[in-house]
Design goal:
Number of strands: 13
Structural class: mainly beta
Largest sheet: 8 strands, antiparallel
Order of helices and strands: EEEEEEEEHEEEEE
Shape: elongated
Length: about 180
């Protein structure tokens, strides 16, 4: 059972210019006191063909976390366009918002992001060199893909069976929060 449950994420500045910061209002519930902070990360997937272009836009620690409903604003800088292949700057990509406890990721929320030019003329006749100041992003905020992972929390006993340690890495995927 998860001690922390994600209740909702509001994407605040959407659509926005490519170079604007990302802003999320995150609401979660904590059922028991936590000894450590929660680590939240925002990752921009820079290429569909290689992890080497992924960028961690920001990573923050939230804590101490009181029992009950909690809400905070997560703001992250935009990705560095020079680290993204030019052919993939104006296209569809993904951002991942993750949360970990004690180095164990327990929830991942993925959003599709459409990066396109801000005028019809540029969309129909794209320039040879990407004009990043004319690219806008649109996060498909109403259709997140949520994956939850079982982890060991503070009060979980580390037990073993006859066939070895209990594997807490099962995952559960679903659409929406």
């Amino acid at each position: 059972m998860s001690i922390v449950s994600l209740l909702g994420i509001n994407v605040l500045n959407n659509p926005a210019p490519f170079s604007d910061p990302y802003e999320f209002e995150i609401t979660f519930e904590c059922l028991e006191p936590l000894k450590e902070d929660l680590e939240w990360k925002l990752i921009y997937v820079g290429s569909s063909s290689s992890f080497e272009h992924d960028q961690i836009l920001d990573s923050i620690l939230v804590g101490p976390v009181p029992v009950g409903t909690n809400k905070f604003l997560f703001t992250a800088d935009p990705p560095s366009p020079e680290l993204i292949p030019a052919a993939e700057l104006v296209s569809v990509t993904v951002i991942l918002l993750t949360c970990s406890y004690n180095g164990q990721e327990f929830v991942r929320v993925g959003y599709y992001v459409n990066n396109e030019y801000d005028t019809e003329e540029l969309r129909e006749n794209p320039p040879n060199k990407v004009q990043i100041d004319h690219v806008v992003r649109n996060i498909l905020a109403e259709k997140p893909r949520v994956t939850r992972f079982n982890i060991e929390w503070d009060n979980d006993a580390k037990t073993t069976k006859d066939d070895g340690p209990i594997d807490g890495n099962e995952e559960e995927e679903e659409d929406g929060l």
